[in-house]
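Late entry, evening session. Most of the bench is empty. Finally got around to the prediction I had been postponing all week. Sequence below, unchanged from the version circulated by S.P.
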Amino acid sequence: MSQIWSVAQEGPIEGVLVALQLLCFGVFGVLLSKADIASHRLPNRLVGSWLLASLALVICLGASSGGLLGILQGFLGMLLLGGGYLLISLISAGAMGMGDVKLAGVLGLNLGYYSLPALFLATLLTFVLATFWVIGGSDRAQADIEVGRAVWAIHGHWGICGTACGTMNLWQLRNSSPSCEHI
């Protein structure tokens, strides 16, 4: 979470905006996970509310820190992850619903603001963990993955966010500082 932390430390406004973004992630993540497990659906009302809140927070974060690049990365992340999920949805003939596609756009916007490589790693890890859960599990694991695909996406992105951002900062530190060549 080092990139998120560094943005939060830029000033009090940025700190509040990052805290609100993480709060939205937690609240909407729990509500959407609960809805997905209960009804196999992601309510448009919840996904849309999270999207609007995320758009406002990303734009405010970019405006307050002068980070037009972050805003563009967020929109690119939304396009890449949402578009990738849309492609999977179209190819899989109904195995993935449009709620998952919309959720992917929101996740791409939120994590893409901070780092596109972190977004890629979070997405990759989400698919790998879900695959291991199904391969290594029982019939119950297969039922869980069918019921809670959004649960995997939300919690996979949340869990890897800190690791991916920290890894990218370590890589940048190694490549930018001559005193860190031993890393």
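Two things to note before I forget:
Residues 12-39 form the longest helix (28 residues).
The chain has eight helices and no strands.
Will write this up properly tomorrow.
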